[in-house]
Every structure is written in structure tokens, then in C-alpha cells.
């Protein structure tokens, strides 16, 4: 029986690509150095899969930044502002699109489905002149072949590419992106022809949009795209891969009827309903790539359970037609458990990172073939049993408290406008209050302090206190109204809390790419969650004691902790979320008791956790919003609760956002063409405080006072003066002080300018 991997993490087991990229961007190493590190990573990944016995090994899943941007490069769809004049796209143009440069901002970045990975959104319109401008897919195929590995080149499928794009600036919103199919398919044909000439026998098209609720004309686009490609694909085996959820019945019909396609890939972990569709009928003679090994999590596969699913699938599609696969690209899981030196043996036996998942896929394929590795299966069964029965997983008090939450609602007693009045009496803020989102630059020096003094808590506290003092002073000098302490003690807004909560474990090298060179290390939730002691009160009270201005307490909310962790798969996600909500509630109440009057509870990931299918949204939003409200339902009217969210496709969930009942919300806004404001233009009433970000923090570019003032004025056209806040899009941790100081200076100057205009207009 054959085995297949959808895609593999590209950063390397010790984040080698991250360091190579950042060194190149800083001008400390050459393009050749970067290419060498990258080639070494690719080669070791291919070798590892080949040694493990994987039959269908992917290529072109490596990327210097993002696979959607790679597709934009392949199609030559570079927005004109980057000044590309044709030819093969080089690093200059590629990284300018990804990160912006001194004169041009970066392209929009948004979440890849419901993951914590971000892609660069293609900007397309009727006038884009497509051309074959990056031969990366073919080069990688040849590179692997030269190393003796015959791979399956992977391309983002043409229909998903267009469905994930947005109309370029100035193009009518009604413009049909799908109408560009005819223009991009000729380039796909060129790529396919080159791959065939290079000797490829399989090709994989990733079409994950097939798991969403598509309209019939969108489904029709798949039919026409693949029938258009059919003649060029002849002689090749073609796999169309879907992932992240089950495929709706209509889409399943369309997919499995596509012409010229040899195999279909399904996520059978998040898409268990697809099993029923397969049982209902699968085209004869075609291959089923059965994604039974979870690419989104770190739990060891339940091999016996998977084997029985695979055997039943064999009964339906035929003995040689089932290919064992990962549920999606392993990009979304950690790289190699071997590098985890601090996890205890028992916990480690419950886990599998990407390298171990490759072994699992192969072991399942061998077992289906009658070559069962008994040692592997019995160790796997023992680990599954130990996880099920371990007392470390269960805390009955927590389970009871969380169960009690479900039957009742939790809301603050007073309505938001009365609360805002009570808070204003206490805080006495000017109109258009200025604030930032929490983190200040995470400099090398700061990271060194945390790293070197981790074990020497007292020295670390003293050094971090000095950092906070600097941040507080800087904000006072800049004349910001509501301050933050800068989060110097935090490596990451989720990992930091995971490290202090019971029921969590954390890794030393469990990095997962978030965007570009940036990675996160999601904590592992393995048991019932509780808070042994306060987590932030020390830092927030210390910072408050340094200033007379209000200091925001800074917490990460339960839904974000859940969505950015590796979550246990032995109970529903909402159960775990309620447990985290109770822990954060205790923290909120302790902060309030310590005299913190403004508390921000970040729910940066609430939107991204939204299920991919409409029918599941209401249930998720209900428990997610409820969990948030649980955290702060017990505070006084005078305590101002802020929340913050990044990435602003909120228009569809605006009513849930209102239902969170926060006093103030700050939202990313500037890198997405101010889409957020359109919801207010369309008449949605929002009575709480709101701070749509006035500048992009992902780019080193410094926004001018005029540009920020212009943005604020646009906001004032749709939002009342008395509810508008002025703040950046998100935290400042990835920026340098040389960027943050002038940017915030301009932000405050712009605010003062508008305050003056407003008061003279009265
Ligand atoms: C807001 N965002 C977040 C998301 N998810 C999260 N879990 N957290 C988030 O904040 N998703 C959406 C967005 C994504 N945005 C970002 C922004 C920035 C980063 C980022 O900067 N990540 C860092 C991670 C580095 C880190 O945490 N380091 C630790 C440990 C120190 C360290 O790095 N040690 C190295 C050695 C390095 C050396 O100098 O020698 C080591 O031991 O390996 C720390 O700071 O304490 C990154 O650099 O990628 C991510 C997502
Ligand atoms: N408080 C966090 C939110 C990021 S989404 C920060 O400022 O980094
Ligand atoms: Zn944010």
C-alpha cells in the first residue's frame, strides 16, 4: 500500500530557514548563503521521507515566504507598484511584495483558512498581464530528482488561487476573479509541460477551497478548469488535494467527476463526514488519498483506529487504490520530537511531530499491505492507553466548574453606555484617546535577558523592570493616554500563559511557521486547565506604580489561547475553552483587586477559529463569545475591559463581536484596505469604544502624520467621535525602536491635529 505526505514544514528542525532569511534581510549574508541553507533543508527533508519509505514525496512545498506568494510569482501577477519589468522574479521583487520596502507597503497578509499560518493575498484585476515568471516548481522537482528522489510537485490549484485572491485597488468589487481562469490556465499548462518534460509522473493540485460552502458557479469553475487542463495533464497522474474540513456533498460530486484526475485527497481527521460520502460512492479505478494522520496537531495517531478506517475504505475503493496520507500539509505542526529534551517520557510517548507523522503514515501503509510492524503498533497502543488513563489529564474540580458554566449566561450587569460613563468619570480621557496594543519591540537584548536569566528569576525581574520603565517613560514622553507595560516578560502572548497554567506542557523546539520567518511555539494542552497562581499581576502593578496615567493590564483571552495551542483531542474544544476562561477570569479579578482599572483581554484568534462551514459557525461563536464574557462578567462598571483582534475580516461576525460586550475593541484595519469600516458604513450600530488600527505594524515603513490623520478622518465619517480610539493595528514586538518612536510620534501628532480641528469646528 502506498504512502503520501501532503507537505512538510520548511523552517527546519532548529528554524534554520528563519535565521538564514533574517540574516539575508539584514544584509549580513548573501543570496547564495540563503539559497544554500534552503537547498540543504529541502534535501534533508526529501531524504528523510525517502528513508522512511514514503512513496509520494512532495516537492515545491518549500517556500522562501509563502506558497500563495510563490504562485503569484509563478503567474507573474506582481502588482505594478513593485516596479517589476518582467523576466524571472528575483528576491528583490519577491520580498518587496511580502514585506514592503522603503517606499512601497507590503501586500495584504491574511489567515490561511482556520490556521495560524498567513498567506500573501494576490491582488488581481482584468488588466493583469500573466506570464510564467517563476520556475520554482520545476527547479525543485529537478533538484530532488538529481538527489535520487522522484517527487510529486505540488501547486496551489488554479481555482483555489483565484478564490483566495482579492480585486486589486481600483478594480470594481463586483469584478469576478474567477473570470481570470482563462488567463492563468495557459501558465499552469506551461508549468505542467515543463514538469512532464523533466520526468514527473504525478502532480498535486491543492484545492482546499473545496471544503468551503461554494456557490454553484464556483464549483463549475473546477469542472471547467480541469477539463481545460485535461489534455496537458494526459500522461501524468493527477492528485487534487483538499484539507481542513469535510468536503460538502455537492463539492464532492464535482471533485470526483473532474476530468483527467487520478486521485483525490481528503482530510479524514477534521472531515469525518467525507467518509460517509466516500461510502456512498467513489469513482472506480481512482485513488483515494486518505488523510488519517493529523497534520494540525501533535498527538500520536491512534494507529489501530486508523487502520480499521483504512481497511474499510479498501473495501469500498479497492485494495490498491487507498493511499495513506497526512490530513493536510505538516506545515501546521511542529517539526521533530527528537529535539524535545525537556518533555517527560510519558508525555513524549503521547506525541508525534512532523518527522514522527511521516513514520506513522508509512507504518499504516505497511500494515495495510500485510507487513505490520508489530513493535510499532504495540508501542502505539500502549501510549494510547496510558494517555486515556493517566491521572495527569484529569482535575475533577475543574471539570465540575466548567460544566456548571454551560447552562447559564454570563454578562456584566450594566449596559455598555452606562459603563463607559462610569469609566470616563474615573479615567478622564481626552476625546480620541491614544493607546497601543501591548507589546513593545522584542529586541535581541530583551530576548537575551529572558534566555540567560530564565533560571535566575530575581535578576530577570530586575532587568525586565528596567525595560518596562523605559517603555512607560517613552509613552509618557510621546503623550499617549492609556499606557502598556510592553510585555517584556513574554516570549509569546499564548506560550507565556501556557507556561503558567496547569494542564499545559511546552516544548523547546516545537516551532510552527506563522508568517514569513516568524514562528510560534504553541503550548500543548494535555489535561484539565487551572491557574495555580496569578500570572501577570506582578508586572501590571509594577508598571502602574510607575505612572499616574492608566496602565492596561494585558491578558490573552481563552479563545485565543485555545486556537493558538495544540489542543487535546479527547474532549470537545469548547470544554477546554471554558476551563481556560475560568483561569483567565481569576486573573482579571486579581488585576482589578490590584488597582488596574483598564484590562485588555486579547482575542486575536477568535475570528480565525471560525469553522470553515457556515452550518457550524453559530455554535462556535456562541461558546467562544460566551467564554470571553465569562472572563470579565464579574468586574465593576468602572473597570474598562478592552479586547483586541488582528486581521479584519470581521464583517460577517460583527454581531458576535458586539455580543462580546467589551468596553473598547482595537482591531487591525490598515493592511486590508479598511474593509472593517465598510460594516459601519453599511449602518451597523456600534456603541462601545473602537480603535481600528491607524497603521500597519508588520512593515518597517513609518507612516506620516498626514497619512494617519487622513485615516482617522475617514473613520470619523462612519464612527462617532466619542467612541473612536487611535492606536496601531497590533502589538509592536516585531518592530525596532527606531521605527516605533517616530511612528507613534506621528500617531499622537495626527490625533492632536484632529482634536484641534474638532474643537474649533464646535
Ligand atoms: C499576533 N500573532 C501571534 C500569533 N500566534 C501567536 N501564538 N502569537 C502571536 O503573537 N498569530 C498571529 C500573529 C502572528 N504574529 C507573530 C508575530 C511575531 C512572531 C515572532 O516574533 N515570533 C518569534 C518567536 C521568537 C521567540 O519567541 N523567542 C523566545 C525565545 C528566545 C529565542 O528566540 N531563543 C532562540 C535563540 C535565538 C538567539 O538569539 O540565539 C532559541 O532558543 O531558539 C523569546 O523571545 O523569549 C520569531 O522570531 O519567530 C510570531 C508571530
Ligand atoms: N497584546 C499583544 C496582542 C497581539 S495580537 C501584542 O501587543 O503583541
Ligand atoms: Zn494583534
TrEMBL record:
<dbReference type="GO" id="GO:0003871">
    <property type="term" value="F:5-methyltetrahydropteroyltriglutamate-homocysteine S-methyltransferase activity"/>
</dbReference>
<feature type="binding site">
    <location>
        <position position="602"/>
    </location>
    <ligand>
        <name>L-homocysteine</name>
    </ligand>
</feature>
<keyword id="KW-0862">Zinc</keyword>
<protein>
    <recommendedName>
        <fullName>5-methyltetrahydropteroyltriglutamate--homocysteine S-methyltransferase</fullName>
        <ecNumber>2.1.1.14</ecNumber>
    </recommendedName>
</protein>
<feature type="binding site">
    <location>
        <position position="668"/>
    </location>
    <ligand>
        <name>Zn(2+)</name>
    </ligand>
</feature>
<feature type="active site" description="Proton donor">
    <location>
        <position position="698"/>
    </location>
</feature>
<dbReference type="InterPro" id="IPR002629">
    <property type="entry name" value="Met_Synth_C/arc"/>
</dbReference>
<feature type="binding site">
    <location>
        <position position="646"/>
    </location>
    <ligand>
        <name>Zn(2+)</name>
    </ligand>
</feature>
<feature type="binding site">
    <location>
        <position position="644"/>
    </location>
    <ligand>
        <name>Zn(2+)</name>
    </ligand>
</feature>
<feature type="binding site">
    <location>
        <position position="116"/>
    </location>
    <ligand>
        <name>5-methyltetrahydropteroyltri-L-glutamate</name>
    </ligand>
</feature>
<feature type="binding site">
    <location>
        <position position="18"/>
    </location>
    <ligand>
        <name>5-methyltetrahydropteroyltri-L-glutamate</name>
    </ligand>
</feature>
<dbReference type="GO" id="GO:0032259">
    <property type="term" value="P:methylation"/>
</dbReference>
<dbReference type="GO" id="GO:0008270">
    <property type="term" value="F:zinc ion binding"/>
</dbReference>
<feature type="binding site">
    <location>
        <position position="487"/>
    </location>
    <ligand>
        <name>L-methionine</name>
    </ligand>
</feature>
<feature type="binding site">
    <location>
        <begin position="518"/>
        <end position="519"/>
    </location>
    <ligand>
        <name>5-methyltetrahydropteroyltri-L-glutamate</name>
    </ligand>
</feature>
<feature type="domain" description="Cobalamin-independent methionine synthase MetE N-terminal">
    <location>
        <begin position="3"/>
        <end position="315"/>
    </location>
</feature>
<keyword id="KW-0028">Amino-acid biosynthesis</keyword>
<keyword id="KW-0486">Methionine biosynthesis</keyword>
<feature type="binding site">
    <location>
        <position position="730"/>
    </location>
    <ligand>
        <name>Zn(2+)</name>
    </ligand>
</feature>
<dbReference type="InterPro" id="IPR006276">
    <property type="entry name" value="Cobalamin-indep_Met_synthase"/>
</dbReference>
<keyword id="KW-0479">Metal-binding</keyword>
<feature type="binding site">
    <location>
        <position position="655"/>
    </location>
    <ligand>
        <name>Zn(2+)</name>
    </ligand>
</feature>
<dbReference type="Pfam" id="PF01717">
    <property type="entry name" value="Meth_synt_2"/>
</dbReference>
<keyword id="KW-0808">Transferase</keyword>
<dbReference type="InterPro" id="IPR038071">
    <property type="entry name" value="UROD/MetE-like_sf"/>
</dbReference>
<dbReference type="GO" id="GO:0008705">
    <property type="term" value="F:methionine synthase activity"/>
</dbReference>
<keyword id="KW-0489">Methyltransferase</keyword>
<comment type="pathway">
    <text>Amino-acid biosynthesis; L-methionine biosynthesis via de novo pathway; L-methionine from L-homocysteine (MetE route): step 1/1.</text>
</comment>
<dbReference type="InterPro" id="IPR013215">
    <property type="entry name" value="Cbl-indep_Met_Synth_N"/>
</dbReference>
<feature type="binding site">
    <location>
        <position position="602"/>
    </location>
    <ligand>
        <name>L-methionine</name>
    </ligand>
</feature>
<feature type="binding site">
    <location>
        <position position="564"/>
    </location>
    <ligand>
        <name>5-methyltetrahydropteroyltri-L-glutamate</name>
    </ligand>
</feature>
<feature type="binding site">
    <location>
        <begin position="437"/>
        <end position="439"/>
    </location>
    <ligand>
        <name>L-methionine</name>
    </ligand>
</feature>
<dbReference type="Pfam" id="PF08267">
    <property type="entry name" value="Meth_synt_1"/>
</dbReference>
<feature type="domain" description="Cobalamin-independent methionine synthase MetE C-terminal/archaeal">
    <location>
        <begin position="432"/>
        <end position="752"/>
    </location>
</feature>
<comment type="similarity">
    <text>Belongs to the vitamin-B12 independent methionine synthase family.</text>
</comment>
<feature type="binding site">
    <location>
        <position position="659"/>
    </location>
    <ligand>
        <name>Zn(2+)</name>
    </ligand>
</feature>
<comment type="function">
    <text>Catalyzes the transfer of a methyl group from 5-methyltetrahydrofolate to homocysteine resulting in methionine formation.</text>
</comment>
